[in-house]
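Deliverable D5.2: sample structural annotation.
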Amino acid sequence: MFDKHAIVNYIEDRHLKDGGYFFARVEPSSGLDTYLAVKTLKLLGQKPKYTDSIIKFWQNEERDGNVDDLTGIYFASQTYKELGYPLDHFQKYKDLLLTICQSNSLYAKKTISLKGEKFGLSDSGIVSVYVDMVEGEAKSVYYLLKLLDDLKIDFDSKPFVAYIHSLLNDDGGFGSIKGSESATTYYCLEIQKICRQQFIKQRLVTEYLIEQLHLANYLEEYHWSILGLHLLGKHVPERERVLDFISACYRGNGGFSRSQFIGISSVEYTYQAISTLKVLRAI
C-alpha cells in the first residue's frame, strides 16, 4: 500500500546543508522537522544518511542560542536519543529544567485570545493559532517531564498529576481551552505513564478517544486518537477506514499531507502517518 523506499527518500530529500531538515527545503532547518525526520526514519528501520551533520546542526543551534528553552532542549535531546547518542551532554540544563518545574505559569490553564487581531473567515492564520494553542496545551508539561525522566533528574510528580487532573472533563477527554481535545488527552496519558500513575477513568477516556476517531477529519486527529488508544492498550476500531484515509493522504513524492483532499506533504504529517501506521502494524 505504501512505498517505504519512497517515504525514506522523501525524508532524506528534506535534509539541508546546515545539517538539519525542513519540509520546504530552504535554510534554516527546522528543529521540529529535524527531530521528526530522524524519528520517522527510525520507525521505518532506517538510519539517517547524514548523522554527523545532524549532530553538527544541533551543536550550531546551541552555539547560536537556539537551544536555551524547553522546546529547543527537548527537540535536540530527543534527536540525540533517536540516533542512539548518550544524553550526558544535556545534564548542563538540569538547573534550568528544575527552575521551570517550580514555575506556576507552566501548570496554569491556558486560554486563547485573538483580541486586536483581524482575521477573515477564510484566513488560515486563525486556524494556525488555534491548532498551535490546542495541541500545545499539555505539550510543554510533557516535554519537561520527559526530559526530567530521560536525564534521570529527581522530581516531585505531584504537581504533574494535579495538573492533568485539573484538565480532565466529564466526557473523558482532557483540555481547558475549549474543552476536551485528543492531542491534550494523548499528552496527559503520556504524563500519567511517566509518573507511573494508573490511568484516570480509563473506560471513559477510551470512549472519548473512540468517539474522536469516528469524528476525525484530519490526519492529526486520527494520529492523536489512535496513539492515545495505543497507550491505553486498547483495540483501534475501523482499522480499514483509517488505512483508507491515510492512503488518501499519501502523496506522489513519498510524503503525507493533512487531508485526503487538500494540502501539501510535510515532515510532521509524514511522521504522524508513519507512527499511526506502526501502531496499526500496516508498515
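Annotation notes: DSSP finds 14 helices and no strands in the chain. Residues 113-130 have pLDDT under 50 and may be disordered.
The annotation will be released with the project's public dataset once the embargo ends.
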